Amino acid sequence: LYLYFSLTGCVTCLDHDEHYILTFPNGYGRSILTVPWIELGGECSISCSKTGYNASIVFHTKPFYGGKKHRVTAEIFSPNDKKPFCSIEGEWNGVMYAKYSTGENAVFIDTKKMPTIKKKVRKLEDQDDFESRCLWKDVTYNLKIRDIDAATAAKH
């Protein structure tokens, strides 16, 4: 069974007045007959029109035999450059390592050591009709009360 999701988003860094357009990996439901898990796979990109910096990211799916889960590689480019100034590899839900064009190697991020930060979300009444939480509020509510039929109806 393969579940397919594909989206494009925009992240705004208010402190720098930067807007990043990004694509997301595909999501796959795996091993539904044993212990299910979600796998991310595919190519993604991030770009900032203001700075010109961009990145290409690949979420690698696990081969049928051997291999590791949750592998990711990425290349980060300066404006107008064809060669990346930084390459990243590791696990998207673990440790990722950076290799810079200067030859320096370093831990890029260790997701296991990151603190959990509570999201700041506007109240539902202050959101536009097509903002995520407003749009999906009835689905979310019905899933929380375990009314699958009502959740399905709200989703339609």
UniProtKB/TrEMBL annotation:
SUPFAM superfamilies: Oxysterol-binding protein-like (SSF144000). GO terms for cellular component: cytosol; Golgi apparatus; membrane. GO terms for molecular function: sterol binding. InterPro entries: OSBP_sf (IPR037239), Oxysterol-bd (IPR000648). Coiled coil: none annotated. This is OSBL9 protein. It comes from Tichodroma muraria. The gene is Osbpl9.
